[in-house]
Amino acid sequence: MEVTNKYIVIKHHIDGAPQESDFELKTEAFSLSAEPGKNEVIVKNLYLSIDPYQLNRMKNQSSGQLAMDFAGAIIPGKPITTFGVGRVIASGNSEFNKDELVSGILSWGEYSIVKEVGGMLRKVDTMGFPISYHVGILGFSGLTAYAGFFEVCKPKKGEKVFVSAASGSVGSLVGQYAKLFGCYVVGCAGSPKKVDLLKQKLGFDEAFNYKEETDLKATLKRYFPDGIDIYFDNVGAEMLEAAIENMKPFGRVAACGVIAEYTDKGRRASLDMVHVVYKSITIQGFLVGDQMNVYKNFLSATIEPLRTGKLHVLEDISRGVESTPSAFVGLFRGDNVGKKLVQVAED
Amino acid sequence: MEVTNKYIVIKHHIDGAPQESDFELKTEAFSLSAEPGKNEVIVKNLYLSIDPYQLNRMKNQSSGQLAMDFAGAIIPGKPITTFGVGRVIASGNSEFNKDELVSGILSWGEYSIVKEVGGMLRKVDTMGFPISYHVGILGFSGLTAYAGFFEVCKPKKGEKVFVSAASGSVGSLVGQYAKLFGCYVVGCAGSPKKVDLLKQKLGFDEAFNYKEETDLKATLKRYFPDGIDIYFDNVGAEMLEAAIENMKPFGRVAACGVIAEYTDKGRRASLDMVHVVYKSITIQGFLVGDQMNVYKNFLSATIEPLRTGKLHVLEDISRGVESTPSAFVGLFRGDNVGKKLVQVAED
């Protein structure tokens, strides 16, 4: 059986902040049968993960650094891969059967063909949670937050934690993990509404709107008069500079994302390395792909508070494949609150 | 018995590169007897350690960060403390006896009174090595190099190591430890003579004169076509930026010193944090004072190669207390080759 598959491509490489006009909706005739003898699975996409790092994959890769093994360069005119959840429609792989729910590397479209299935797909046990949770909190956003906080930052109870982009997919979970663990947590975000959410719903001790602050170094001094033990950095640039100057001795910075640089590669963090040396600060970059070994620990630490409502889920869901470009572009304007998803179809 | 003690002070706080005119020679009547009942030791200074970080202690401390517990602010007109080796002349402390050789916190002068002796002095067993070695290679320079390389960088055999200020007191040892351990080592220094020394005498695989390079990023790419595993950073600023861009995945940076910033606090390292995240780089500042627990390991790793001549000692010795300001000022012009010392007196 054949259908028409709608999918999104970039028209050209993107430099700077993305615009909706950088994207294009395409249609193609799409076979819903797996080709006999081929190790491929046909998936009907349900939810797609929309993440800032994907912008780096859309850039001209001549600098050679921005595409990774598990998330290669995005080529103009070609399908855009992303993490997502869908239902198997047809399978040429004996591990996957029709109608099974799977998560893995799908594409910005209504349907995906997953070729060379090994490692690219896994079955989803919903455990009674909404399907969308398996893209965000129980997917890579959750694992990134968990591993970044516990494995990279190595927190101790009572430590003072600062989280930037704290209402985002990862930051909102880092702050909650830190609170559940017994830390003092301050977050920053980009609107009064987000700040309220952090304090009222997610239980952050304090939160501030960075757009209202003119001297971030002084702001952090105000919220952390005795200094910061842990900074979970999703943004880079001035916020990282200010955090470094406010770190305590033996402070740790988990460098998870650099959204400031993604849209402007000149917006670097101009670090006062004297602080780094004199306060024995550690700055550690990490990728979630290297943290799969803690996946089980992550699940056991997450499922219980999720069931009991101690861990709150922030989802920001757009509907329909056509909404994908605007969903993505909005990330860089701070439109999203929590995990940005596109629901491509009802299950 | 009383003598005249010559000693050096700063006339005023120093901002920027130090000049000899910032210093002043003073004389004072100095008693060679320990005051009865006081826990103090009178020491005749022999060798004084001259180190770049002391400049930070000479600055106006209003920023509050640059003086440390073990090395407080240097006050205009007052004695300048430093690490050194000397002979006990008189002692009010039962642990120390006349004529014993001691190392510890002495001052830029001919004599020191060490008050509240606990932790400030220790007896020196020369183990047959020259006295000066106990200020440098067997003192904090050696421990800094050893702990910074082995404890902070956690090297593996065969890894590619880059060392800046490689002919300096710490860098020259880091490179040699790395070679003895089985790494590939490239160093940079500031003159052709130093570069020759690194390659011919110290056994570095490669070395270059950074003053002859116009694009440090390209330079490092040339010496490390497959990337850097470990960067031992003594300088900060552009060199750190270039190293970060040339690191391999899981690369480690030991941030030991920031000589570029010491004389110009605006000369920061403008880091491309995308590299730090995407290559899972760790940047770790450290202070030798936190590494005393590896002192025994350091000695056992150092004494044997030192005796057998596998570890070379670079010392740059000025003579007479009057030479201390020029010895210190010269550090920031790169005058010294290896550990800078002032020999105040013959033993």
Automatic annotation (TrEMBL), chains A, B:
Q: Which residue range or ranges hold the Enoyl reductase (ER) domain? A: 16-342
Keyword check for Transcription: no
Q: Which residues cross the membrane?
A: none
Entry superkingdom: Eukaryota
- Tell me, what's a Pfam family for it? ADH_N_2
Any single GO molecular-function term of the entry would be: oxidoreductase activity
Kindly state which keywords UniProt assigns to this record, in alphabetical order.
Answer: Oxidoreductase
- This protein is called what? Enoyl reductase (ER) domain-containing protein
Species of origin reads: Cinchona calisaya
